[in-house]
Amino acid sequence: MKTVDRLIANVQVSSTEELIQAVEALSPYFGTIRVDMSEAVALGCPEVFGVINSHDRQVFFDCRLNLDPQNMADTVIELARAEIGIFSVQASAGMAAMKAAVANKGVCQVLAVTVPPHFSQTDCERVYGISLATKTIQLAHEAKNAGVDGILCSSAQLRMLRQSGEFEGVFMVVTNILPSVSSEDKGKGVWGAFEAVTGGADAMVVTSLQSELWAVGAEGAEATRKVLGFLLSTVEHGLDHVHRAVKSVASGIDKAADGVGKAKTKVDPDDDQ
Question: N vs C: which end of the chain shows fewer Cβ within 10 Å?
């Protein structure tokens, strides 16, 4: 999987002109552009999807559908005709509704949102009557069993899911990742691209991009390339860190197995006597 395909740009625009400008600036660095319901309604789905597709980028329509099975099926059929690559549903819609989305998605990919990423522990206990971790894992299991293509979650939820050890191989997309993170932000638990990759994310939705670009806009295109190029290199650094960690663990296992084999060889002759 290419690095750019792991990066999803969250654009927040109020006009087609702004959208075109954002997509042109971001498309060399992001394989997918995320749009939500507000932009789709304000600008029109065909207009928004058309601009993104014209730049050969994948559309992620983060619509978070929460419908009964029949309406889910009907809506997803229309989405599949709209030339989008990914859309999202709420796992809380239920197993039957998620299965209806999967059955009618065509070539699209569907991501399931477990507990809404902005929910706190208090919110979760108030709405669901159980802890955030328990509900997140429960809904992730239901989404996995329904056959969705991946899970869309917050950084806190990603930690819960990966630490549970129950979702090996499940594609995880983490939301609200900042292009760059200060030491102070890291101390508060805020994630940047490196933290997302090493924390177990397969892909990430990068936010606050406009503010980053506007901050360097006066310096021109070269400064923009510097900001986004640093983002790409950070992801690659994170991937290299993960690969080295995996290789180190594998090497340790091989050495341990070799040690057991040698010990067994020394013991076996005595066992035969």
Answer: C
| Boundaries of domain holding 112 | 3-237
Report residue 35 as tokens. 């749009």
Q: Which two tokens stand for residue 121?
A: 């522990």
Please report whether residue 254 resides in a domain. Answer: no
Contacts of 137-140 with CB under 8 Å at 24 or more apart are: 137/161, 137/164, 137/166, 139/91, 139/92, 139/112, 139/114, 139/115, 140/91, 140/112, 140/114, 140/167, 140/170
Is the distance from CB of 140 to CB of 115 less than 8 angstroms? no
Give the CATH number, domain containing residue 201: 3.20.20.70
- Contact predicate 146/171, CB 8 Å: no
User: Scanning the structure block, which residue is given the tokens 């070799």?
Assistant: 258
Q: Residue 161: which residues within 8 A CB-CB, separation 6 or more?
A: 136, 137, 140, 151, 153, 167, 170, 172, 200
* Cβ–Cβ under 8 Å, residues 111 and 86: yes
Q: What is the pLDDT of residue 220?
A: 47
- In the chain, the amino acid numbered 12 is Q
Number of domains in the chain: 1
Within a domain: 70:
yes
Note whether residue 34 is domain-resident.
yes
Alpha helix segments (H runs only) across 129-220:
132-146, 155-164, 183-187, 193-198, 209-216
Separation between Cα atoms, residue 273 and residue 89, nearest integer Å: 66
